[in-house]
Amino acid sequence: MKIAFFSAHAYDTESMDAMAKQEGIEHELHFFAHRLTLGTAQLATGCEIVVIFVNDTANAAVLRKLHSVGVRSILLRCAGFDMVDLDVAKELEMPVLRVPAYSPYAVAEHAAGLMMTLNRKYHRAYNRTREFNFNLQGLLGFDIHGKTVGIVGTGKIGALFGKICVGFGCNVIAYDVFQNAEALSYGIKYVSLEEVISQSDIISLHCPLFPTTHHLINNDSIGKMKKGVMLINTSRGGLINTKALIRGLKNGQIGSVALDVFEGENGIFYEDHSGEIMADETFTKLFTFPNVIVTGHQAYFTQEALANIAKTTMDNIRAIESNGPYVNEVKK
Ligand code: NAD
Q1: Which residues form the D-isomer specific 2-hydroxyacid dehydrogenase NAD-binding domain (predicted)?
Q2: What is the C-alpha to C-alpha distance for residues 115 and 232, in angstroms, rounded to an integer?
Q3: Residue 331: is its pLDDT beyond 90?
Q4: Tens digits of residue pLDDT in 145-193
Q5: Does the beta carbon of 238 sit less than 6 angstroms from any atom of ligand 1?
Q6: What is the overall mean pLDDT for the chain?
Q7: Domain assignment of residue 56, given as a range
Q8: pLDDT at 242 over 90
Q9: 124 classed as catalytic
Q10: Fewer beta carbons within 10 angstroms: which end of the chain, N or C?
Q11: Is residue 257 located within the same domain as residue 312?
Q12: What average pLDDT does the segment 8-13 reach?
């Protein structure tokens, strides 16, 4: 069987090749650095399985193109599946399998790192001390201890982020459509979404991107937040209306923002654009604020996560090989 991997960087190729060897998978693995788009789909000609990542596109047109060149299954190297048209995949009888969890610790820890960096300004201190500037003006933070942290979405990652914040001595409140017993056991208290929005000093987003959560953070919700609130998004860019975010930053309603994800990240993140003129003015505007930090969808990026992604991908390949059962199938 031939298998095509899209958006494959050197670290993906290395981890997949190593795991295939370890697991005794002897299929032909083809790695393409290109993102999957309508224009690149034909690279998968002759491949039965296509393996994609967060910024690949598997919409109706791309799925039909893949099917026409012989692709019969879609494997995701990630948990989120918002880039796949599940209705069309079903119509084409292409199972879609994902990696439901690879390291919730990686993402929760990155969110905690962003929170600490925004607060204590490590990025600015790093630059200053490299030039022997030891002036502390502008580096003033606050005690995280005793602050109210609000979490939206207490699944695997949100619950762990809450646990970390409880460890800091925070009052952790959360909103989710379901209560997670593990989150409750960590001391996280469930409240309404409105209360998370209005009572939190720090808000961290950990719910998936659905039509119901699209632009959850907008002019209206920002207006109800505490003045000077810290906002962290390691989930999906589409949860935030970036124009409203910029308005909130400009009028001081939002005190600081850390983004690991951005609504228009597709085609920007995971590639080197240094030396280019960036066309997206909303994106570039974010970099003019000293109280904004952007990381390029790297929250997941730990050794453990890459190994777990590769292991589950090999398990998913085996499941396709044996026509099921598909334990990691994405169902609508
Ligand atoms: P999960 O499925 O374990 O948890 C998601 C939680 O969100 C669930 O508890 C669910 O009930 C809740 N939820 C659903 N709809 C909601 C709503 N309308 N309001 C509030 N909560 C709602 O997922 P996870 O593994 O914890 O991942 C969380 C998010 O993090 C996902 O969007 C995922 O795509 C993203 N993620 C980002 C990275 C990264 O590198 N930045 C890596 C992995 C996952």
Answers
A1: 113-299
A2: 7
A3: no
A4: 999 999 999 999 999 999 999 999 999 999 999 999 999 999 999 999 9
A5: no
A6: 97
A7: 2-102+302-322
A8: yes
A9: no
A10: C
A11: no
A12: 97
Given the residues 236, 271, 281, 304, the one annotated as active site: 236
CB of 104 within 6 A of ligand 1: the answer is: yes
As for the ipTM of the complex, it is 0.99
Q: What is the residue whose two structure tokens read 């790192």?
A: 113
Residue 221, in any domain of the structure: yes
Any idea what the Cα angle at residue 319 is, between residues 315 and 325, rounded to 5°? 120
Residue 176 CA to residue 191 CA, distance in Å, equals 9
What sections of the chain are H helices per DSSP?
Answer: 10-23, 60-68, 86-91, 104-120, 122-130, 156-168, 181-185, 193-199, 219-224, 242-250, 281-286, 303-321
Would you say 203 and 196 are in contact if contact means Cβ atoms under 8 Å apart?
yes
Average pLDDT over residues 324-328: 96
Nearest CA to ligand 1 atom 28: 206
207: Cβ below 6 Å to ligand 1? yes
- The pTM score is 0.94
Shared-domain flag, residues 97 and 109: no
Q: Is the CB of 77 within 6 Å of ligand 1?
A: no
**Which residue minimizes the CA distance to atom 1 of ligand 1?**
155
Q: What is the pLDDT of residues 77-87, one digit of tens each?
A: 999 899 999 99
pLDDT of residue 49: 98
User: How much distance in Å is there from the Cα of 152 to the middle of ligand 1?
Assistant: 9
Q: Say whether 236 is catalytic.
A: yes
pLDDT at 252 over 90: yes
Q: How far does residue 80's CA lie from ligand 1's centre (Å)?
A: 8
Smallest CA separation from ligand 1 atom 12, residue: 153
Report the atom number in ligand 1 closest to the C-alpha of 236. 32
**Nearest-CA residue for atom 8 of ligand 1:** 155
> For the chain, how many structural domains are there in total?
2
How far away, in angstroms, is 155 Cα from ligand 1 center?
Answer: 6
**Residue 332 covered by a domain:** no
249 Cα distance to chain centroid: 22
Structure tokens at 306: 């890459």
pLDDT at 206 over 90: yes
